[in-house]
Amino acid sequence: MTTEAQSALRRIIEDFSERTRFVIICNYITRIIEPLTSRCVKFRFRPVPVEEQIAKLEEICQKEKITIGREIIESLLSQGDLRKSINSLQSLHNVNTVPEILPIPQQVCSKLFETLKYSNNLGEVLRQTNELLLQGWPADELLRAMLN
Is the pLDDT of residue 103 over 70? Predict the structure, then answer.
């Protein structure tokens, strides 16, 4: 949410807090303005373990009669964020194409990151980056993956 939207939400909470309870879910508490966080009780959740995420995604696939391999399910995992993994599964089922919705594989980012870190060869960095772009990975996703 933008800062302005958070300020508006703060006013709504102030106006209705006597008879209404609000639940706000976020991934980054540091991105929430202080006047809003000061009015909240904070609960921190640990990342969901990989095997539990896989089991839940397989259960969803079974119930929804979706047939995909374990390799695809593993590629949907999102560093312990089960909600994001489920959203990715839903997107995959809706668009029927994996590269459109999957995050850039960690090994791809690791290779590019190592090249950036240990090489003075700008040509190699550009070659690897162009290769990823030609494979269809969006530039903004590539930057996000590198930051992660």
Answer: no
Whether 42 is in a domain gets the answer no
Segments forming the whole domain that contains residue 67: 50-95
| Residue 110 CA neighbour count, 13 Å, CB half | 3
Report field, pTM of the whole predicted structure over 0.70: no
Q: Which residues 6+ apart lie within 8 Å of 65 measured at CB?
A: none
**DSSP assigned state of 38:** T
Which element (helix H / strand E) includes 122? Answer: helix 122-134
d(CA 135, CA 100): 11
Contact status, residue 89 vs residue 60, Cβ threshold 8 Å: yes
Residue 100 in domain: no
What number is the average pLDDT over the span 32-48? Answer: 90
